[in-house]
Amino acid sequence: MKKIFFLLVATFAIAVSCSKEKPKEIDTPNKGEITIETDESFKSVIEALTERYMALNPETKINVIIKKEDLGLLDLLDRKARVVVMSRELSVKEKEAYDKKIDLPWLPGKFAADAVLFVVPKDSPLESISMDEISNELSSDKKRLIFDGTNSSNLNFIAQKFQKNPADLKFSIINGNENVAEQLKNYPDKIGVISYNTISRPFGEEATKLRNELKVLNVVKDNKSYEVSSENLKDMTYPFTRVLYFLSNEAYYGLGNGFIRFSCQQLGQIVVEKEGLQPYNIFRREVQMR
């Protein structure tokens, strides 16, 4: 009887000890595998950041899944992805869903300034487009504006900017930012709407090709014309500047939070700058001469 009693006590002690051990599936900032979802508009910068992070941390694997912004947010809430990239403000209902399902402090990891561009073929006579003209085009049956799809970051951001429901807007669709840019020459009366990151990489072969084929329209607001430039992104004077940020459902300091921290600090910000985007956190270099 005593043997049975001591056997039960020993079994219970082992069970308690095992329950206190760190679960094997929990990753660390420098070891493990996670999935990050991003809209195709930000594919270039996210791939550059993940490639650099994995090079510095060889025992990590970050799977980048390209998915429309709205759908990526749903996957984050359902824990199908560890981290997602967002470019617009969440609605009250979306924040309530985040608070309810994720139950973590609201801490967006801001890492870059991107922009939505209005582009035409290089030989187009158009040089600029006004805020009023954009607003009118969004309600026109001519559907002159070409977006990269519904639920996309570009469409959502423009709709939010004009305080309109995306479902109420009128527009044409060509799936994918690069496809919009490449096929625009076949629709000389149309205006493409793409992300800056699609063409911002200074020495990227595809980005350079598209820049040579496209003309980026200045945006006129309050009788002043704004071009897309690093200065206008830095001070957010270009009317369609947007801040890219990460959201995570990771409740500990694992691979997801490690990657976010890297992206928002100096090494990650250098990658952002090399992508041609404006780093959100600017690190100044001070050189002392003696």
Summarize the structure.
With 290 residues, this protein is α/β, with parallel strands linked by helices. The protein has 12 helices and 13 strands. The strands form 2 sheets. Strands 1, 2, 3, 4, 6, 7, 8, 9, 12 and 13 form a 10-stranded mixed beta sheet that branches.
Describe this structure in words.
The strands form two sheets. Strands 1, 2, 3, 4, 6, 7, 8, 9, 12 and 13 form a ten-stranded mixed β-sheet that branches. A three-stranded mixed β-sheet has the order 5-10-11. The protein is of the alpha/beta class. The N and C termini lie far apart (83 Å). The longest helix is centred in the first third of the chain and has 19 residues, at 2-20. It has two domains: 32-112 and 243-279, D-Maltodextrin-Binding Protein, domain 2 (3-Layer(aba) Sandwich); 114-241, Periplasmic binding protein-like II (D-Maltodextrin-Binding Protein, domain 2). Helix 11 (255-264) crosses helix 12 (266-274). 39% of the residues lie in helices and 22% in strands. Keywords: Signal. Pfam families: PBP_like_2.
Which class best fits the helix and strand makeup?
alpha/beta
C-alpha Rg (nearest Å):
23 Å
What do we call the CATH homologous superfamily of the largest domain? Periplasmic binding protein-like II
Task: Give the distance, in angstroms, between the N- and C-terminal Cα atoms.
Answer: 83 Å
Order of helices and strands: HEHEHEHEEHEHEHEHHEEEHEHHE
Mean pLDDT: 90
- Outline: globular
CATH class of the largest domain: Alpha Beta
Number of helices: 12
Number of strands: 13
**Helix content range:** 25-40%
CATH arch. level architecture of the largest domain: 3-Layer(aba) Sandwich
Poorly predicted runs of 5 or more residues: 1-23, 284-290
Percentage of β-strand residues: 15-25%
At CATH level 3, the topology of the largest domain is D-Maltodextrin-Binding Protein, domain 2
**What is the number of independent domains?**
2
The largest pleated sheet is described as: 10 strands, mixed
